[in-house]
Amino acid sequence: MWNSFDTADYSGMIAETITIKGHDGRPVRAYFSRPLGKESVPGIVLIPHMPGWDEYCREASRRFSEHGYAVICPNIYEDYGHGTPVEVSARMRNAGIVPDSSVMEDCSSALSFLRSQPNSNGKTGVIGMCSGGRHTFLAACTLDGIDAAADLWGGGVACSEDQLTPSRPKAPIDFAAGLSCPLIGIFGNDDRSPDRDEVNRTEEVLKSLGKDYRFYRYDGAGHGIWYYDKPMYRQEAAMDSFNKVLDFFDEHLKKE
User: What range defines the domain where residue 104 resides?
Assistant: First the structure.
């Protein structure tokens, strides 16, 4: 739980930009934060959201590292050059959206990187917000070595056929049979992407397949519940859902 640490405990962290081998063997920058002074830690891949590989993603990475996780956030927009996150994400959208295939390769490399660390406990999770939530669902259904996944308001998981594109040729929900790890979902009932109907359709599929999932929905909240830098922030829902996600990861990634 947030703010439940013992004041006598040591606290230390290191966070830096590194380079890993990403899609097509290309170098991809990644933000890597991890706690110091711990012999064994689980890992989390944080997939960036549509605003880009931005400051919020870095802060979110450090927040989970403060709670005992090694977190890597790969720059899935590496192919679109450099500049501010806003500039890069604009070029990405103009190019037709980052392909699912390259994002999955980058995530797979990030997972392998986490498991290769000498103090890894061997367990890894994935989390993403917005488009990163969609990518999280897709990763949890198609990639190996994921022990828990958190989809935060990921729109387009159960999209219609007319919403498919060359970069996104198949709806993530079509891969749901391959979900092999527990999944948590956080959604606002006033969100338009995903709206209530899409969340319902996703839940119906997971339930019919007998998957291990838990969805939490918040009244009076829309998209981006955690984004404290935007008007969409909802303090009560944000803290309640953060604790639920943290407890979920602790349950599946920290316990033997």
Answer: 13-254
pLDDT in tens, 211-239: 999 999 999 999 999 999 999 999 999 99
Nearest to 63 by CA among 102, 105, 23, 13: 13
Residue at 8 is within a domain: no
Distance CA 45, CA 86 (A): 22
Does the pTM surpass 0.70? The reply is yes
* Domain-located, residue 45: yes
50 near 89, Cβ under 8 Å? yes
Query: In angstroms, rounded to a whole number, what is the distance separating the alpha carbons of residues 109 and 42?
Result: 16
Residue 4 lies in a domain: no
**Residue 5 domain flag:** no
- Domains in the chain, number: 1
Strand partners, 73: 31
